[in-house]
Design a protein that fits this description.
This protein is mostly helical. Helix content is about 60%, strand content about 5%.
Length: about 120
């Protein structure tokens, strides 16, 4: 399985330091009022808040795309190899991992793929 890194994404920090290109954005009045209130609560200008929010949304979209591709790749690998993990084994593993992280038990043994089908 190949995990791909999301494409370069403009973050709020890099957006503030890179060259800007003017754009026009028409907002419904109610939305603009909500955004102004949110920006005020964050101690930001409306412009900075919108740039940050748009950059965050773009990054989340790319992360979702990467996650979906990783899942599709994992499914293809499982179908090709015939090996995978049962839902019960995965649930038990994460239950044991939770116990370990709460210092209640030793770490769980790594999951080993099994022949599926």
């Amino acid at each position: 399985m190949t995990t791909q890194k999301p494409e370069s994404v403009m973050t709020a920090t890099s957006a503030a330091t890179s060259a800007t290109i003017p754009t026009s954005l028409k907002l419904p009045g109610a939305l603009k009022l909500q955004l102004e209130e949110d920006a005020k609560q964050m101690g930001m200008s409306l412009h900075a808040f919108m740039v940050s929010t748009l950059a965050d949304a773009a990054q989340r979209k790319r992360l979702r795309q990467t996650f979906a591709q990783d899942a599709a790749d994992a499914l293809a690998d499982m179908k090709a190899s015939g090996k995978g993990h049962s839902l019960d084994d995965v649930r038990l593993y994460f239950s044991q991992l939770k116990e370990h992280r709460q210092d209640k038990s030793a770490p769980p043994a790594p999951l080993q793929p099994k022949k599926m089908g």
